[in-house]
């Protein structure tokens, strides 16, 4: 048993936690007891899982499991060093070369996570004399990377290319480099960033163009090649960031671009320089996942079929599945807007009690008054599972007197 202490040095943390409990937004981590599947067990309870980023069901695909086991037997459980000292294995290079071919770019570097890929790249390619033009709803990893770079940050209204151009005009004659950056798919609202319009502006004003495709990888574009492929912007985006921990089903992030960009990141990106490289099992798993993306496009079609059906039924029942500025989501990310934070968290807990896992999202992750249940579709959900979840969501919402409030 851990002995409780009464040291005052961290009392401010306890006060903040008490405030979270008082306003109903404190949470406990739910513990997964088995595989990340459409139906699984959390905290010992069987639920329909509508909270996972496992878009294509690859996290427990037999071919990925076999690849991980084979790599572990051949190369061990760890690399033993950072990439720049002794931790670059042939399998790491094979993965980076495979991703580069898949994304139609010259080169790729893999990071330990999508977060470090974004933060490490932005903070290393810009400095205090430069400018970053960032969508107001960009991911926290982009925001942190921008702050670490010490560049001057200009925030444009969500998906507002005209506003971005106004800001580019403001800084056009300022010394320093300019970077335009957007999410390809925004993680809380599920809407698609205007990559084509922003890339055209970056070209016009001589700015670097960067896209974070974490939630677009494996979802948008041919065989899941992402938003750059979706918009036909190959050669127009200088920095493409993706993740290996969502549709790919494993762990990590990556950056794609020119050979010089990747070589520079080898030398200057701090998360790359100071973190041990991936276990060989993870690299092998990711290679197998990209093979499946190329060979089984029907997985992505099933994902979209499930998405259109599920979201259509929610809207017919009277639910609001729009985001902050869009009338409805455009991707498998399905924000069921509730409004008040406490109510959203109560709704999430009630759904779990009835056998549906849907994550409550409240301030500061989303703005005040825009709390929601974020529901995530996968290719592996059956129609029967979706119908059961839909019936549960509608029944619980009516019981809580919420259906009119969320419609």
The CATH C-level class name of the largest domain: Alpha Beta
CATH topology group of the largest domain: Aspartate Aminotransferase, domain 2
Q: Structural class, from secondary structure content? A: alpha/beta
Query: What is the rounded distance between the termini?
Result: 48 Å
CATH architecture of the largest domain: 3-Layer(aba) Sandwich
Major pleated sheet = 7 strands, mixed
The helix tally amounts to 15
Strand content: 15-25%
Return the string of H and E elements: HEEHHEHEHEHEHEHEEHHHHEHEEEHH
Explain the layout of strands and helices.
Blueprint: H1 11-23, E1 39-42, E2 45-49, H2 62-75, H3 90-103, E3 107-111, H4 114-125, E4 131-135, H5 140-149, E5 152-156, H6 161-171, E6 178-183, H7 195-205, E7 208-212, H8 227-230, E8 239-243, E9 253-257, H9 259-268, H10 270-273, H11 280-295, H12 298-317, E10 333-339, H13 341-353, E11 356-357, E12 359-361, E13 371-376, H14 383-399, H15 403-406
Helix pairs in contact: 2-11, 3-11, 4-5, 6-7, 12-14
Brief overview, please?
The chain has 407 residues and is α/β, with parallel strands linked by helices.
Q: How would you describe this protein?
A:
Helix content is 43%, strand content 15%. With 407 residues, it is an alpha/beta fold. The protein has two domains: 24-53 and 297-406, Aspartate Aminotransferase, domain 1 (Alpha-Beta Complex); 60-295, Aspartate Aminotransferase, domain 2 (3-Layer(aba) Sandwich). The strands form three sheets. It has a seven-stranded mixed β-sheet with strand order 3-9-8-7-6-4-5, with helices on both faces. Strands 1-2-11 form a three-stranded mixed β-sheet. α2 (62-75) packs antiparallel against α11 (280-295) and α6 (161-171) packs parallel to α7 (195-205).
């Amino acid at each position: 048993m851990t002995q409780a202490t009464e040291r005052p040095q961290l009392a401010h943390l306890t006060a903040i936690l008490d405030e979270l409990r008082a306003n109903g937004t404190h949470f406990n981590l739910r513990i997964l007891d088995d595989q990340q599947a459409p139906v699984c067990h959390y905290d010992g309870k069987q639920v329909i899982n509508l909270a996972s980023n496992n878009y294509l069901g690859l996290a427990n695909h037999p071919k990925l499991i076999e690849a991980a086991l084979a790599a572990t037997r051949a190369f061990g459980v760890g690399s033993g060093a950072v990439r720049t000292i002794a931790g670059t294995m042939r399998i790491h290079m094979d993965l980076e070369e495979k991703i580069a071919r898949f994304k139609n770019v010259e080169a790729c570097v893999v990071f330990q996570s999508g977060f470090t890929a974004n933060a490490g790249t932005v903070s290393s390619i810009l400095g205090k004399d430069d400018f970053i033009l960032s969508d107001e709803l960009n991911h926290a990893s982009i925001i942190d990377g921008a702050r670490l770079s010490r560049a001057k940050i200009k925030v444009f209204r969500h998906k507002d290319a005209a506003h971005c151009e106004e800001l580019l005009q403001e800084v056009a004659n300022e010394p320093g480099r300019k970077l335009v950056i957007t999410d390809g798919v925004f993680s809380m609202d599920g809407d698609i960033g205007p990559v084509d319009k922003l890339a055209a502006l970056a070209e016009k004003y001589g700015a670097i163009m960067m896209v974070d495709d974490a939630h677009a990888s494996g979802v948008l574009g041919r065989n899941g090649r992402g938003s750059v492929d979706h918009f036909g912007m190959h050669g127009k985006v200088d920095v493409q960031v993706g993740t290996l921990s969502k549709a790919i089903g494993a762990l990590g992030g990556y950056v794609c671009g020119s050979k010089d960009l990747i070589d520079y990141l080898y030398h200057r990106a701090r998360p790359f320089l100071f973190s041990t490289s991936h276990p060989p099992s993870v690299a092998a798993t990711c290679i197998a996942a990209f093979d499946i993306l190329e060979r089984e496009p029907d997985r992505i079609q099933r994902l979209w079929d499930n998405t259109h059906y599920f979201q259509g039924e929610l809207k017919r029942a009277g639910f609001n599945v729009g985001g902050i500025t869009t009338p409805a989501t455009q991707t498998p990310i399905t924000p069921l807007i509730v409004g008040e934070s406490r109510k959203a968290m109560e709704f999430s807990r009630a759904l779990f009690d009835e056998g549906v896992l849907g994550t409550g999202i409240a301030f500061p992750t989303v703005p005040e008054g825009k709390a929601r249940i974020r529901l995530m579709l996968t290719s592996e959900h059956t129609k029967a599972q979706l119908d059961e979840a839909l019936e549960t969501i509608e029944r619980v919402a009516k019981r809580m007197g919420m259906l009119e409030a969320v419609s």
